[in-house]
Design brief:
The complex is a heterodimer of chains A (about 100) and B (about 170). With about 100 residues, chain A is an all-alpha fold. In chain A, about 80% of the residues lie in helices and about 0% in strands. Chain A has helices spanning about 5-25, 30-55, 60-90, 95. Helices cover about 75% and strands about 0% of the residues of chain B. Chain B has seven helices and no strands. In chain B, α1 (about 5-25) runs antiparallel to α2 and α2 (about 30-50) packs antiparallel against α3 (about 50-75). Chain B is extended, with a radius of gyration of 22 Å. The N and C termini of chain B lie far apart (about 80 Å). Classes of the chains: A mainly alpha (about 100), B mainly alpha (about 170). The interface between A and B is large, with 71 and 83 residues.
Chain lengths: ~100, ~170
């Protein structure tokens, strides 16, 4: 069976919704961060599939810039998580939630 | 089934299985390893679509740098399966149902799209020289701004991660 665009759409949406399920289900802040990276990668996959279908190079460059922004975001996000861990000694989001009091 | 289709289904199965492993495993180190396997499967998808530059960059940047950073942070905090907090059973089921409903809504929105076969011809736009030509001609401004973005992210990470110096004046005042 040849591979159609709808297959890549299905795969990307499945990975995206698995990422959302993980972000809602887990309490560990680092695992939630990893699910965000999974969501970004599912979008990258769909963009590359569309770039092949419509022979458009701009989509692959957009994927390149998404990776750039994701790398910078991971650096800053992990710095924030490490700083919070130093104060509270936990990465549980239920405990990090109470810092506003 | 030719090679392209076989590889597509195999890589898709690996990607979805490892993504499920990320969200279902108790040990955070296992989650990171599953995510690395997911990134390798997605890079495999890029390879069979002839997006060679993005496949290599995906492996180097995501699996090679970002996930290693995650592993460092997890090892620093000494997280393992014993101290892993778990949400209540009801909330986990509610999360799965919410994600599943979002998935169904998105599928319903796009399932009428006309299917175009993907492996019609092998294209050259994924090769690094073609990407480089367009990147440095039309996208040179975002490219330079992304270097400023990296600089600011580096400075921000260092400033956030610095240990606060102890304040001796407070101790003496009390």
């Amino acid at each position: 069976m040849p591979v159609y665009s709808t297959h890549y759409l299905f795969l990307s949406l499945l990975l995206f919704s698995i990422g959302i399920m993980g972000a809602l289900m887990r309490r560990n802040a680092i695992i939630i961060f990893m699910c965000i990276e999974l969501m970004l990668n599912s979008v990258n996959l769909l963009l590359v599939a569309f770039s092949k279908m419509y022979v458009d190079i701009n989509a692959q460059l957009f994927v390149f810039f998404i990776m750039v922004v994701a790398a910078a975001e991971v650096a800053v996000g992990l710095a924030v998580i490490v700083m919070m861990y130093r104060k509270v000694h936990s990465v549980d989001i239920n405990i990090l939630n109470r810092l506003k009091h | 089934m030719n090679l392209y289709d076989t590889l597509f289904w195999f890589l898709s199965a690996v990607a979805v299985g490892c993504a499920l492993g990320v969200i279902l495993s108790r040990n955070p180190v296992n989650s990171v390893l599953f995510l690395i396997a997911t990134f390798f499967a997605i890079s495999g998808h890029y390879f069979i679509m002839n997006a060679q530059f993005l496949a290599i960059v995906n492996i180097i940047v995501y699996a090679g740098a970002i996930m290693v950073l995650f592993l460092f942070v997890i090892m620093l905090m000494n997280l393992n399966a014993d101290v892993e907090p778990q949400k209540g059973q009801l909330i986990q089921v509610a999360g799965v149902i919410s994600g599943g409903v979002l998935f169904l809504v998105l599928i319903a929105a796009v399932h009428k799209a006309s299917p175009m076969p993907v492996d019609k011809q092998s294209i050259d736009i994924g090769l690094i020289n073609n990407l480089g030509k367009v990147l440095f001609k039309e996208y040179v401004l975002p490219f330079e701004i992304s270097s400023v973005l990296f600089l600011s992210a580096m400075i921000g990470a260092v400033v956030i991660g610095k240990k606060e110096p102890a304040l001796p004046a407070e101790g003496e005042a009390q």
